[in-house]
Amino acid sequence: MNFTLSEEQKMVLESLRKFLDAEIEPAFRAHGEGFIPREKMQRWTQQLSEYGLIKAPHAEEWGGFGMDWLTHLMVFEEVAYTSLDIAIPGFINCVGAELLSQLGSEELKRKYLPDLISGDKFISMGISEPDVGSDVAAVKTRAVRDGDHWVINGEKTWITNGEYSDVFVCTCKTGEGEVSHILIDREEHGYDVMGIKKLALNGQSTAQVFLSDVRVPVSNTLGELGAGLKNTLKLFEYARCHMAMWGVGVARRAMDESIKYSQERSQHSKPIAGHQLIADKIATMATHIDAARLLTHRAMEMVQSGARADKECSMAKWYGTEIAVTAARDAVEIHGGNGVTKEFVVERLARESIISPIPDGTTEIQKLLIARCLTGIQAFR
Ligand SMILES: Cc1cc2nc3c(=O)[nH]c(=O)nc-3n(C[C@H](O)[C@H](O)[C@H](O)COP(=O)(O)OP(=O)(O)OC[C@H]3O[C@@H](n4cnc5c(N)ncnc54)[C@H](O)[C@@H]3O)c2cc1C
Question: Where is the Acyl-CoA oxidase/dehydrogenase middle domain (predicted)?
């Protein structure tokens, strides 16, 4: 195991950080927390893809850089540190493109992969439904065969990138107990979306997707019929590593803001950084962040090498997203009253961090999965 960054990784991260500080941070601040229109989000996503946000791990054949997933995760951490709103669409495109490259036909890959990897088009992926959350196997959206087409009906919710999406990977029932993935093109096949307002992260899109008699060619099926659950678990491994780094990005920003503030703010005749209980919070944040990053890099390395990594991905996701919550809360406390005002970034981080343990399987679900790997006993059914 190598803990030193390669020269290439150093170069990628240094140039990305300069771009984020000079361009993205001020532009995001100027925009504020309202919804980022597609054109603007597309421009930022395209620019960031050139720094590896989407391109890094994908094959050169499709317009990627042919690098590795670990470097991509490091890039994602940096962008998440600056703005989760701006990092998330690229994360979804990157993982969605991986799903397509693993399961799609050559024709589908040729048609969609280059545009998804460049950030010209957006993908979204839908498992969750109004009545279906943690229990993924219970999806109700149904695809019924009609000659060479599927006719799809159902409702999906919490769909990241929903409003931006050009294509939608729908997890649905294609037969009794048979879960499959079908790719729907918004322009060709049509589906309706409606944005969802949240506690935070309203710059990017989270939406409901409505599917009403949507006719899609059978050739748009991704992977084998009935392999949807198995393929979803594989997809979760990539997504959970990203969720963990989303947490690390937020926690690291919370720590850096806390260090700066505690050096500048004096109480009881000295900088508050010199008070031992404040020092304890900062030391704890730093140690949690490193531990979360190490857990995540290990999990990603295992996924990339083809090893079974469900337990390690769940550990990383649980830990990385929960330490974001505690780091952001401690950062607000270190800022005192200022910490709850819009003048300081930590107020936004605290709201964003609360969301982080929920997508891609809650903390409770990750713990059940870890325990199942250890005991062999199924907690679900
Ligand atoms: C910002 C955001 C983005 C998202 N993006 C997407 C997306 O792009 N695509 C998509 O398909 N979904 C997406 N989701 C949905 C997300 O994956 C679900 O919200 C999550 O899986 C939890 O499902 P639920 O909200 O229905 O909660 P529920 O499953 O109803 O759970 C409610 C509570 O019960 C607990 N619980 C449930 N079952 C058990 C159990 N067996 N044992 C113990 N506790 C249990 C949960 O941990 C939770 O605390 C997103 C969610 C959010 C908030």
Answer: 124-214
Q: What is the pLDDT of residues 292-302, one digit of tens each?
A: 999 999 999 99
Given 118, 149, 168, the domain boundary residue is: 118
Q: Which residues line ligand 1 (CB under 6 A)?
A: 124-128, 133-134, 158-160, 206, 355, 358-362, 364-365, 368, 380
* CATH number for 256: 1.20.140.10
Q: Same domain for 275 and 368?
A: yes
Q: Tell me which of 211, 226, 241 is where a domain ends.
A: 226
Cα–Cα dist 184/216, whole Å: 7
Residues 73, 300 contacting (CB under 8 angstroms): yes
Nearest 5°: the CA angle 361, 365, 371 is 135
The Å distance, Cα 219 to ligand 1 centre, comes to: 30
**Domain encompassing residue 96:** 7-118
Is residue 155 within 8 Å of residue 185, measured between CB atoms?
no
Beta strands in 250-353 (DSSP E): 266-267, 270-271
Same domain, 233 and 371: yes
How remote is the CA of residue 13 from the centroid of ligand 1, in Å? 33
CB 150 within 8 A of CB 218: yes
Given a cut of 80, is residue 381 above it in pLDDT? Answer: no
CA distance 72 to 80: 12
pLDDT at 1 over 80: no
- Minimal-distance CA residue to ligand 1 atom 11: 127
* DSSP three-state, residue 184: strand
User: Residues 233, 222: one domain?
Assistant: no
pLDDT-derived band of residue 380, with 50, 70 and 90 as boundaries?
A: confident
Give me the residue label for tokens 């597609």.
Answer: 38
User: Does residue 33 sit in the same domain as residue 135?
Assistant: no
Residues 50 and 96 in one domain: yes
- In this structure, are 238 and 311 located in the same domain? yes
- CA 60 / ligand 1 centre spacing (Å): 35
Continuous segment of H or E residues that includes residue 352: helix 345-355
Task: State the distance from the centre of ligand 1 to the C-alpha of 354, rounded, in angstroms.
Answer: 13
Q: How many domains does the chain have?
A: 3
